[in-house]
Design brief:
The protein is an alpha/beta fold and 244 residues long. The chain has one domain: Rossmann fold (3-Layer(aba) Sandwich), CATH 3.40.50.1820. The protein has ten helices and six strands. The chain has a six-stranded parallel sheet, with helices on both faces. Helix 1 runs parallel beside helix 10. The longest helix has 23 residues. The chain is globular. The two termini are 23 Å apart. The mean pLDDT is 94.
């Protein structure tokens, strides 16, 4: 199975290294990407949107054969959902890592400060304590040293979607900062945060308790969870291909 891995804000393709290695060992083909415009100069990224980042991933998919699973962490989840909207006939599953589908008109985070025309990794005090769980001083220092900036319109621009077949694409949520019971309760109460998720036909929730960056705080466990979700989809594809 081809697996596209989209990192969240301030991370690049290398952040998926443990997950990519585990996918390869399991016989899958990972394609870790650095989102379009990440780390770019202000004058180069001023006009880049979520739609542009999704289109770049869709172009990658179009250049390869076979079905795909798309994985999105944090803000990368908004891109992953837009990819499912663009290519619902090619994407077999979307896996959200402490993230979820962002609906039409939604924004990832319009409160992040724009500095010199880009959105840099802010001070740790911006985040909730539960988001930072598992990030040791060493991990935080490494994260900050390798952090890449985000185009402003990716953070504060509106999501644009067009094809409701995206709701037919199965979803796995690997949730780290929100227990499944809380998530299900929000869905039952029609909370705006999960309204787009509630419209998806097939949703599986996997709990991986840690902070918002499990690829940094629990990389091996995240890798195992992603491989299990991808393998489940691959097994389903294989079963459908076997004549009865």
């Amino acid at each position: 199975m081809n697996v596209v891995l989209i990192p969240g804000f301030w991370l690049d393709a290398s952040s998926w290294a443990p997950v990519s290695a585990a996918l390869t060992a399991a016989g899958h083909t990972p394609h870790a990407v650095t989102p379009l415009g990440a780390g770019g100069a202000a004058d180069e990224v001023a006009g880049i949107t979520l739609a542009d980042q999704a289109a770049a991933v869709a172009e990658l998919i179009d250049g390869m054969d076979g079905p795909f699973v798309v994985v999105g962490h944090s803000g990368g989840g908004a891109v992953a959902h837009a990819v499912a909207d663009l290519r619902p006939d090619r994407v077999e599953q979307v896996i959200y890592v402490d993230s979820g589908p962002l609906g039409e008109g939604g924004v990832v985070n319009d409160e992040l400060p724009v500095v010199d025309g880009v959105v840099p990794l802010p001070d740790w005090g911006v985040f909730e304590e539960e988001e930072l769980e598992g990030l040791t001083d060493e991990i935080r220092a490494d994260f900050r040293a390798r952090a890449v900036s985000v185009p402003p319109l990716v953070a504060n621009g509106a999501q644009r979607l067009h094809d409701e077949r995206r709701y037919e694409v199965p979803v796995t949520l690997i949730t780290s900062t929100m227990p499944e019971a809380v998530l299900r309760d929000l869905i039952a109460k029609d909370h705006p945060y999960v309204r787009e998720l509630a419209r998806i036909r097939d949703v599986t929730v996997v709990e991986l308790p840690t902070g918002h960056w499990p690829q940094l705080s629990r990389p091996d466990d995240l890798a195992a969870a992603v491989v299990a979700a991808v393998q489940g989809e691959a097994d389903a594809e294989e079963a459908m291909a076997v004549p009865t």
